[in-house]
Design goal:
The protein has 8 helices and 9 strands. The protein has 255 residues and is α/β, with parallel strands linked by helices.
Amino acid sequence: MITLTLPSPLEGEGVRRTGEGKKILCLAIFAMMVCACSRGAPSLDEAREKMISQQIVWQGITNPKVIETMKTVPREEFVLPQYRDRAYEDLEVPIGEDQTLDRPYEDALMLDAMGLVPTDRILEVGTGAGYVAALISRLAKEVYTIEILEPLATTARERLKRLGYTNITVRHGDGFIGWKEAAPFDAMILTCSPDHVPTPLIEQLKEGGRIVLPLGGEERFQEILLYVKKDGKLILAKRLTAATFVPMEGKIKQP
C-alpha cells in the first residue's frame, strides 16, 4: 500500500495560490496507477512458473529434466507477437498460417513419454513454430524436423537460428515419408494426427526406438499413444491421453 503525505492547507505559504499541491497530488496518483498496473500484469517469468506448477506438475509430470526444459525454452518467442502475453496459458496459442501451439501439458506429456537421453537422434513430424523441436533439442543430440507448410518451415528455421538452437535441422516437406537420409532415429514425435502410423516412419525407426503421436486423423476421437519398435513392428507401450490435434496432411490422404 502507498501512503500519501500531502501538505495541509495551512502548510507552506502560497501552496494553494501556485497550484503546487495539485501537482504533487497528480504525480502521486500517477505513481499509484503505475504500481497497480505492474502488480496486475504478471511477468512472463511469473507466467512460466505458473504454467509449470498449475498445468504440468499438478497433472503429474514430475520428470526434473522435462520441467527444467520447459522452464528454459521461451515459449513466448514461438507465438504471434500479439499473443506473447498469453503464451503460458492452458491454450492452443496462434502461431500463424491458421496453426497453433499445442497446450503446454500435451508437450510435456509427450516429451516425458519419449524417455530422451543425450545421445538420441530425433525425428519430429510437424515443426509448426519450432517450439517442440527446441524443447527436444535440450534433451537429445540432434533433432530433424519436417513441416509441410513452407511459410512455417521458413520462419521456424529462422527463429531457431536466431535463438541459438544449433542442433536442429528444419525441412519443408511431407512428414509421411520421413527423412530417409538422416535415418535411423532413436525416437520420433508427431504433432499432427494420422489415422495410422506411416510405414516409412516405422522403417526409419531404430529397433527398440520409441514413437509418440496423437492417433486418429480426422476422426473426432484422437489418443496420444507411445509405441516401441520390436522385431520390426510397433508394439503399443502406453496410452497417454485423449487429444485434439490437426490431422496429418499430404500423401497420407492420397488413395
